Amino acid sequence: MKFALAMHGTRGDVEPCAAVGLELLRRGHEVRIAVPPDMLGFVESAGLAAVPYGPDAREMHDEDYVHNFWSIQTPIRVVRAGKEYLSQVWAEMGATLTSLADGADLLLTGMIQQGLAVNVAEYYDIPLAGLHPFPVRVNGQLLPTLPPPLIRSAISALWWVHWRMTKEAEDAQRRELGLPKTTGSSTRRITERGSLEIQAYDELYFPGLAAEWAKWDGRRPFVGALTMDLPTDADDDVASWIAAGKPPIYFGFGSMPVQSLADTVAMISTACMQLGERALICTGANALTHVPDFDQVKVVGAVNHTAIFPMCRAVVHHGGAGTTAAGMRAGIPTLILWVTADQPIWAAQVKRLKVGHSSLRGRRTDEQTCRKCYHCCRSPGTGRQGKAV
After folding, report:
1. pLDDT surpassing 70 at residue 379
2. Closest Cα partner for 365 from 266, 268, 270?
């Protein structure tokens, strides 16, 4: 069979899709995949042939309406900002997706560009499948501090806002494809198609969700967090460094930009020295230039989380879905300093499951954060429960 896979977003969005692609290749299928231009090297290093899809994922985090996602006060401002952004990228992404899916037997996509994908699937009359890194469909389990009816209403409202943001661009795409005008949102049309929607996260995070969605007759299966477990050039060196001393606290920034990496490294180093701790810092998308050397601190670009996290005593990170799952599976305490998008959701679930702590809007890592992590490591009720994931 021929599969077309298209995913936009940062590594946390792209890697689960690439993992599916690799498994399909292993089973003898033909796979075509489209990812953001800055993710091409990552996907191709895993053995997949890829084409560029939309703008660089890093550019999305430079957009004010994305970086300030949870601080924008009214849906009207969200819609206005989103429409302006989408008018620039939707047509280009639609053309790429139409070409990618030509001759495919199934189109697999994520939630960011679901409207694009459902139109292309309709155009070619092929099945559509979704890959969701967190519960994006209406449910009563997403935010544990709110009553289920209020949660469902909030999710419905967010999807309405998304529909208003994309409507003009989607109408133009449908005209280009020769499809009739539709008054239904892409979310409703995906549901009406009976599309498979793969839940690429561990069911344990959201107790009761599987039971709530049982009515969908297996169309929303939970498969757990998907990773390719790719090794990095730094893994062996990092493992040797960890073995030579006390297990470190991991600090990682993922795809989130850090304003001054050198200052952040210096602050973490000072705090860890005062607390008698070691630190492993992974800079992620941030450049490694002009970072000074410090005793008891190791700075690298990236590591294989699955291999390195079990050697650490705690993890401090931005709250990405993949990093959160790796920390939970390693069975060590987690401190999430969230910035945007779905990150506060993971922060809330980590706290709910008593495997760590979270901090409101973790725009920066400061000395107080390091001390909070120090106490997190020693707090009863955190840590090894993560082994249950």
Report:
1. no
2. 268
